[in-house]
Design a protein that fits this description.
Helix content is 72%, strand content 4%. With 390 residues, it is mainly alpha-helical. Helix 3 links the parallel strand 1 and strand 2.
Length: 390
């Protein structure tokens, strides 16, 4: 096992780089986990949303609608109310809902028009946003009914306020189990695995593989008594050891943060299997990179292109529900898309219902990616070996 031991010694020299990614990931996991817990608590323990109201009518009816929503939610104002600013604030969750009351709102309302009188903006699939839509539509409908009875805008607003004050208070019921809420926290942990594992393995293994592929070292190895197939097997065993160690190092913060009971629950084990399959993909990509004569700067550039490019396109850094159809069409040809698709289903952040059939399909596609990349690695290694021999 001389080659295997030499491989591990060379890999040990790259531990500082790998350790840097591990520390960064651990800090991110802690921060996002606590943030996720706060979001879960806020979602189930409060009924007030952050809303922004743009009143371009400034009439009695529009002010009554604004006061009604403001009394039930937290009103947020911004220095600029242009479309781009409001979209940015929605994206970064500084506001949950934006209501625009156009000019002529009261005139149309009291002339008999009651449909599409206001415009709203909210995050896609936002239950909170749709709930506020129903509140606004209900209040506008009450104003319209009062106006149809011949009441003035002031009397109609007073009647609407009186009706809504007499309604009984509604209590919220949490249908989600505590274990499901904890899986939402684990989603943030496993969300960043593709980028972290790719960078850890590529930055740690590729320089070692390139060192073994140097002409002088390779010729010297061929002169030894160890058969080339045995050497390649020991190098492969060294890669597997390094990848396994990286994966286990990735799991340590998760076990510490969530505890064994949550981390090794049914959903946690499904996430673990999904992550183990992606480790195979990362190892195959690294082996493929190791067949090319790359320098340090070229290796760093290519590693970042692969890691960051796949992460942005497949939903690691930006959730898949924010990505356009064109981007998702491209990302389906990348393995990280199928990994993130599983984590979204397990966390309940996807429109898809979690089923073992879909889970096995996504796992199978990732395994096909790993097999295909490994096949390309074998072909590339044979090509470069023949080129050096010839």
């Amino acid at each position: 096992m001389l080659v295997y031991q030499t491989f591990l010694k060379a890999a040990r020299a790259k531990l500082p780089t790998v350790l840097l990614y591990w520390i960064i990931f651990t800090l991110i996991a802690f921060v996002l986990s606590f943030r996720a817990q706060d979001e879960i608590n806020r979602h189930f323990e409060t009924a007030s949303a952050r809303i922004c109201i743009i009143d371009n009518d400034q009439s009695t009816a529009s002010r009554a609608l604004s006061d009604f929503l403001s009394s039930r939610h937290t009103l947020v104002t911004f220095d600029s109310c242009d479309r781009e600013t409001l979209q940015d604030n929605l994206y970064y969750h500084r506001v949950d809902y934006v209501l625009t009351i156009p000019a002529g709102f009261e005139e149309k309302l009291f002339s008999g028009e009651a449909d599409a009188l206001v415009e709203s903006a909210k995050l896609p699939d936002s239950a909170c946003g749709y709930f506020i839509d129903r509140q606004a539509d209900g209040y506008i409908g009450t104003l319209a009914a009062a106006s149809a009875a011949g009441r003035s805008p002031e009397d109609a607003a007073a009647a609407a306020d009186r009706i809504f004050q007499e309604l009984p208070e509604a209590s919220s019921v949490q249908f989600e189990e505590k274990s499901s809420a904890s899986h939402k926290q684990m989603y943030y942990f496993f969300q960043y695995l593709p980028y972290v594992i790719l960078m850890m393995i590529m930055q740690g293994l590729t320089p070692v593989l390139l060192a073994f592929r140097k002409t002088d070292i390779e010729k010297r190895s061929l002169c030894s008594s160890i058969h080339p197939n045995v050497q390649n097997a020991q190098i492969g065993l060294g890669c597997a050891t390094f990848a396994l160690a990286s994966w286990l190092a990735f799991l340590i913060p998760g076990i510490f943060i969530y505890g064994p009971e949550q981390f090794f629950s049914n959903s946690g084990l499904l996430c673990l299997v999904n992550s183990a399959v992606f480790v195979l993909i990362a190892t195959a990509v690294t082996l493929l990179l190791g067949t090319f004569p790359l320098g340090g700067e070229a290796l760093s550039m290519i590693s970042n292109v692969i890691g960051l490019g796949m992460s942005f396109l497949c939903g690691v850094f930006v959730p898949q529900w924010y990505l356009g159809d064109a981007v998702l069409s491209v990302s389906r040809f990348l393995p990280a898309y199928w990994y993130i698709r599983i984590t979204n289903m397990l966390a309940g952040f996807s429109d898809e219902t979690l089923s073992m059939h879909t889970y096995r399909t996504c796992i199978g596609i990732q395994l096909l990616f790993a097999a295909a990349i490994f096949a390309v690695y074998l072909a590339s290694a044979r090509f470069h070996r023949r080129a050096r021999e010839g």
